[in-house]
Write the structure tokens for this entry.
Amino acid sequence: MARNIIDGKKVAELLRQQVRDDVREWVGRGNRPPMLQAILIGNDPASGTYVGAKTKACKEVGIESETVTFPDTMSVRELKEAIRTYNNDDSIDGILLQLPLPGHLHPSQVIETIDHRKDVDGFHPMNVGRLAVGQPTFRSCTPAGILELFRYYSVMTKGRHAVVVGASNIVGSPLAIMLSRENDSGKATTTLCHKYTRDLTRHIIQADILIVAVGSPGLITGQMVKEGVVVIDVGINRVSDSSRDKGYRLVGDCDFESVAEKASLITPVPGGVGPMTVAMLMKNTLLAAKKSIYPSDNM
Ligand code: NAD
């Protein structure tokens, strides 16, 4: 691996090892293994792959998991009912609702139904609110995984200018909160850009740390970034490639070659942020089982 390429697979493996050891210790003390309930709606192949990767990782670290697949014709009411059943089931510690949902199911309506104590994705408004005011919470897995990468590669955020491109509820916005808080994970001067940002390059060129989570291949090119920038490319895009058996390959939001030439560190796609997201989900599920974020006597 080239000197400036961040090895997300390796760091994720270290994290999973840590979770595996912690699960073993937890079970060794007489507790049942943590249990993750995954909900998949419809037959989107990418969502199926992601859920498959997550349940495989569960198995590897000693977390039990089950996936329920519902048809994409399911109503909001039916989905909420199913979620309430899982909320009330004491043998389930974490609930994972794989996004995106079919158009008629609005994520914000449904996510609020998940018991915030089982919200291992960290998407519930209660958990996002706690993140915003610096209280212990389930942190959204992708941003939390990015901060782990910073820790592993000794990327200092304090006092530096971080530019986040993409302001979704699951990546960009929670990451901007984490980076901008005056606590251990943040202390960065943070700019959050989105599709309404005027003159994107003017902001990006100033970044010491650039995180791109848009879903637009080749959006960021080498000419747009400063020499020495740390680049985290969150985007996962399928571009057609007849040389591959599948007929496509995965790329990020950055034009990798030109950006890597100027970056001091950069994540590849695949093998950068993706494995970290899965590892952080394992960590959150263990935290849910241990009731570390919301101790029972506090509720
Ligand atoms: P989203 O579609 O919910 O949000 C996209 C964001 O990008 C919006 O805030 C939008 O305003 C902004 N945007 C769109 N066009 C823009 C432009 N031209 N300039 C600046 N901003 C622009 O996206 P999401 O769910 O956050 O996902 C973003 C990408 O990250 C996707 O490719 C997704 O597959 C990937 N993703 C990867 C992981 C992982 O683990 N690696 C996890 C989640 C998402």
